[in-house]
């Protein structure tokens, strides 16, 4: 909730700030183009907003994980670390109630620590010491070193002077002191607002993991092998999908028999999410490479077939007529008119297919694989290695984005006439 | 025998709902080699259908077309077509578009190259050879289409409102170009247009067609194309006969349109 409110606050504040500082001079004709219903092209993304947006994500991430990349004063309050203390009042049979102090050393998880040394103090209830990891909680058996133990009716009746009963709790400056149903105190140091690394590691921890895994590998394979296998599966599956799908689409666009025969199959298979095929493919082809490539082949096949089909049917009849009246034969029209005319549609299909394949391969690797980006994050999640999971997600996103960018680049280079017919 | 002969052509389209439309009824026409015929008529008079049949894209229900002594069956290189727009191949540059016909016929660059370059020069696109066609303006694109058609050296050129999508100024320039090309090449040309002025300026012969069923309503022989070739078209428009013929034809087409409107109104009231 706090994070969301902060996010909106940064959004609004940076917007106002940028409008005030940068766009104040902008009072010309384009300033009137703010209301542009139905004219999307008139709204261009603000580069400043994109940069601020990304910075904000890292800032919030860093602030709520206590990252060293974010200046200290921007950090959200962290968990309490240090020596905490509270007093308790104990009663026992046949003696006056007595008071003693508990000193608890709260240490960052993962560091070596020792219980603090304390003076036992006077009275029959002795001072205690304990240690608890930050974000954790620990039982403190205060009766253990007292002169009158539980066999003599030892019971704690108050903490810091406030009465407490089994099941109750008292809030102290350092955190919460609870009491178990059996009467044992349980100290839970204040957690602050930051996320624990096992839920959300700091960005530098993720980067450190990336460096470590790209150097040492993970699960007997280097990082590049994991990503490379995922990419290889995508490219192989897409390649075979295009190899069969494009000619199939052409046949469907050119022949009524092919169209009638394959239309029901293609139209049925197209809305089936490839993920739904994973179980069947595993039953038929196992969890090895064959199964995955078959799955990706199926993911790409229908998309490519439909793209090629619409590319062929989309050819303007005047172009075909023009070619005929210039003396071209049917084969020449296919080669010089219909195929080039369908290329933009095929490229659009290829972009969609690559995106779907990339999503499908990660999902398939989540289910079962020995190597691959999806397998890496799946295995890491089982060991609560959140930093590897986040690193994997970022890498998967970056590669997916990179694939799309490459496809767009290829499209601009290879079919510059797209949309300009 | 040379020339184009259209003999008793009828065309009926069957509609999905069982009825049919008589697009052309008993159209006959003889065109000598080198004649320029412009065809004019209200929408629905079957002028585009007529052109598509001559081009070979449609088979007529009745009648036939004889070109240079043989019957037309399907499209062929002897009958080139210039479309209103959008028929260029945008994956080829200007020169490859123009040389498409010769290349498809299996000719070599050294055989067609000089002619293609000459045609590009004639239509004023010498400096745009390597440009992509989608980078050109509408008028320039139609110049490419004209050159592409001529590069194939057809016997008959069929033009389906080739200047219809152009602005008035470009259109005038292109009209001069069409006349110039006609005079220089001596091709037989059938030009369909919905502009009375254009039909008068370019047509050596002028056909006015009437709708429902599509048929020849009236035929003219006009002097303006010969007058206009090689001189200012605006001077031709000042010719006294020009204005009177234009008014006559406009009135004729106007009456046809009125009749169609009246008929559909009666039909609307009856239903």
UniProtKB/TrEMBL annotation, chain A:
Keyword check for Transmembrane helix: yes
Subcellular localization, as worded in the UniProt entry: Cell membrane
Main subcellular location of this protein, as a coarse class: membrane
Gene3D superfamilies in the record: MetI-like
Pfam families: BPD_transp_1 (PF00528)
Keywords: Cell membrane, Membrane, Transmembrane, Transmembrane helix, Transport
Transmembrane segments: 6-26, 47-64, 231-250, 271-287, 293-312, 385-407
Its membrane topology: Multi-pass membrane protein
GO annotation terms (biological process): alkanesulfonate transmembrane transport; cellular response to sulfur starvation
Protein name as it appears in the record: ABC transporter permease subunit
Organism encoding this protein: Alloyangia mangrovi
UniProtKB/TrEMBL annotation, chain B:
SUPFAM superfamilies (UniProt xref): P-loop containing nucleoside triphosphate hydrolases
Domain ABC transporter: 4-236
Gene3D superfamilies: P-loop containing nucleotide triphosphate hydrolases
PROSITE patterns: ABC_TRANSPORTER_1, ABC_TRANSPORTER_2
Pfam family, one: ABC_tran
Keyword Ribosomal protein recorded: no
Keywords annotated in UniProt: ATP-binding, Cell inner membrane, Cell membrane, Membrane, Nucleotide-binding, Translocase, Transport
GO molecular function terms listed in the Swiss-Prot or TrEMBL record: ATP binding; ATP hydrolysis activity
Record family assignment: Belongs to the ABC transporter superfamily.
Protein name per the record: ABC transporter ATP-binding protein
